[in-house]
Design a protein that fits this description.
Largest sheet: 11 strands, mixed
Shape: elongated
CATH topology of the largest domain: Glycerol uptake facilitator protein
Membrane topology: Multi-pass membrane protein
Helix content: 40-55%
GO cellular component, one term: plasma membrane
Subcellular location: Membrane
Pfam families: Form_Nir_trans, Usp
Oligomer: single chain
CATH class of the largest domain: Mainly Alpha
InterPro entries: Aquaporin-like, For/NO2_transpt, UspA
Radius of gyration: 30 Å
CATH architecture of the largest domain: Up-down Bundle
Length: 603
């Protein structure tokens, strides 16, 4: 082995040993058992990346567990008060136990969340709405868990009579504390909690973290400070014992503590710790770090302005496009097996002036198995993706259109498609659909926003069994989706010479004449006068399509009810013709304005 090869191997081994799976430092670069502020920040960003991209369900139940664990703190504190005669030091000795469970166990606690996600937001790698969403979900889970814990203590006979009296006295003392005093006491508690997070990321072993957490949270009761989840549990306990009105306790006790904790965690710790770092704080925590930030508009508005989160890797380079360009985005999970999706997109773009096809290889990594962000590993990912995309580039070149390829590595799959479409101001998204596609595997983690948001553009979803565009069957109805199907058929007719057959179904023989008139007018309106026409009087749309599908090479299925795309993603689209035919099926949905109810449930 030559000396350069040996050196390269040594560096590779050293990088593997000294970096965690997330790419964050595992040892200090100057003193091996200590981290610099930049390295601590990189470790926090790696953790924040997992938190900010976690599904709402995962966050909520982790937060619920944390909220219920806080009950342990409340239980032990009042029990020790009762058994020690109210001694302030002895009573507090077991207070930190609930927090130890939460922080060492990796549960989601609202005050602990003031640091990692805020660090990501300060770098404009995550938007303010994404941060607020994280906070709201975690806080809701914490408070629900605290409610369950308070109910168990109030009605479960867990506390002795002496401890129950101590619990009522403790909660009443908090409620009687003046508003501004609560706020500032809570601000110091927020400082302590967020400071604990910073220090635990600077520690390299569990014993050190255990000691830090214990001593820090011991300071909360000894200093007469307030933590929002503990305070909420105390307040609910008081309400369940008939000693306090819920709204009064919420506004006069919990809210000032919540605001104080947030202020202390964000302003006094997060911002101060952020500004003590240098410009190199993201060099190894994120690929190209600060060079790939959200725009100010995206940072403030999140997905409403394009995207709410910067993917782990994104190779697209900014280019100036003509404002009237027709943009077709083609998200693919496997460039080797989705060539027909690319081919369809290029054929459609060919019929448009100034069309641009953006082929985006979306590589999903699980949120709990973070991708290494080290530059060497990322370059290998990019190189492998670029090699796989070569076939897509060759296919696009055959259509003599402008085609671009890029790679996105993210914890998300389908949501990333929406983000890319909005950011590129796409006119059309063409994507593949089958059971082995990455989008199908991501259904369980979909967010509610995917179901309730308007489509960013028109969508075509191709099931490419025996892909062939020579003979198209186009069922027609009077809808925007059917009109989009007509545009697709017309484009394929002009670019690849597809033969088009129009099908219209009426309720019975008495309606045949009306159906023929409708189909004639519809064909003329959509520029398909030369297409063959069939009027079926069976009244059964699905059977009519199935009967004629085998004599055609592809069926274009416009959404006959709104919400077809979301039904596809939730596996609630049950059309026999889609599942049983051996030919290609193209599902078509036009972006339309719909009410929330229609977006969720269809018409």
């Amino acid at each position: 082995m030559t000396e350069p090869e040996s050196t390269e191997l040594d560096e590779s081994v050293r990088e593997a040993v000294e970096r965690s799976r997330s790419g964050a430092p595992a040892v200090g670069s100057v003193v091996r058992d200590r981290f610099s502020s930049d390295e601590v920040f990189q470790r926090i960003v790696a953790a924040a990346d997992e938190e900010i991209t976690s599904g709402a369900r995962e966050l909520f139940f982790s937060a619920l567990a944390a909220g219920f664990a806080i009950t342990i703190t409340f239980l032990l504190y009042v029990s020790m008060k009762a058994s020690t005669g109210g001694d302030p030091v002895l009573s507090a000795m077991l207070y930190p136990l609930g927090f130890i469970y939460i922080i060492i166990g990796g549960y989601q606690l609202y005050t602990e969340n003031t640091l990692p996600p805020v660090a990501l937001t300060l770098e404009r790698l995550a938007s303010i709405p994404a941060l607020l969403r994280n906070w709201v979900v975690v806080l809701a889970g914490n408070l629900f868990g605290g409610t369950l814990g308070a109910a168990a203590l109030a009605f479960g006979g867990v506390l002795s009579p002496e401890a129950a009296n101590a619990a009522l006295e403790l909660a009443q003392k908090g409620v009687e504390t003046p508003w501004w005093s609560l706020f500032f006491k809570a601000a110091f508690a927020g400082l302590i909690v967020a400071g604990v997070v910073w220090v635990t990321f600077a520690a390299r072993d569990t014993i050190s973290r255990l000691v830090v957490v214990y001593l820090a949270f011991l300071a909360v009761p000894l200093g007469g400070l307030f933590h929002v989840v503990v305070s909420y549990t105390e307040m609910v306990y008081l309400v369940m014992n008939g000693q306090l009105a819920f709204l009064v306790g919420l506004t006069e006790f919990v809210v000032p503590v919540l605001l104080g904790n947030t202020f202390g965690g964000v302003v006094l710790v997060t911002v101060v710790n952020y500004f003590q770092t240098t410009e190199n704080r993201l060099e190894s925590a994120r690929f190209e770090g600060a060079k790939r930030q959200l725009s100010v508009r995206e940072w403030v508005l999140g997905g409403l302005a394009g995207r709410s989160y910067v993917p782990l890797i994104e190779t697209e380079e900014g280019t100036e496009d003509h404002p009237d360009s027709y943009r077709v985005v083609v998200p693919i999970a496997n460039p080797r097996t989705e060539s027909h999706v690319v081919e369809l997109a290029c054929a459609l773009a060919k019929s448009k002036e100034d069309a641009i096809v953006d082929i985006v290889h979306v590589v999903q990594v699980p949120s709990r198995v973070s991708q290494r962000y080290g530059a060497a590993q990322n370059q290998r990912i990019i190189a492998h993706s670029n090699e796989q995309l070569e076939d897509a580039r060759e296919r696009a070149a055959g259509y003599d259109i402008e085609a671009r390829t890029s790679t996105v590595v993210s914890h998300r799959s389908f949501e990333e498609i929406f983000t890319v479409a909005r950011r590129k101001d796409a006119d059309l998204v063409v994507m593949g659909w089958s059971n082995d596609r990455i989008w199908a595997g991501g259904r369980a983690e979909r967010t509610m926003s995917e179901l309730t948001s308007r489509l960013p553009c028109d969508f075509l979803v191709l099931n490419d069994r025996n892909y062939d565009t020579s003979r198209l069957l186009l069922p027609t109805v009077d809808s925007a989706h059917s009109a989009l199907s007509a545009e697709v058929a017309k484009s394929l007719h002009s670019t690849v010479g597809s033969e088009v057959t129009l099908l219209h179904v009426v309720d019975g023989p008495d309606d045949r004449e009306r159906g023929e008139a409708f189909l004639s007018d519809w064909a003329t309106e959509h520029g398909l006068q030369d297409a063959a026409r069939i009027v079926d009087d069976s009244g059964d749309i699905e059977r009519a399509i199935a009967d004629r599908a085998d004599s055609h090479s592809m069926v274009l299925m416009g959404a006959t009810e709104q919400g077809l795309l979301t039904r596809l993603l939730t596996d609630s689209l049950h059309l026999d013709v889609v599942n049983d035919t051996d030919h290609a099926v193209l599902l078509v949905e036009r972006a339309t304005d719909r009410s929330l109810r229609q977006r969720l449930f269809g018409r």
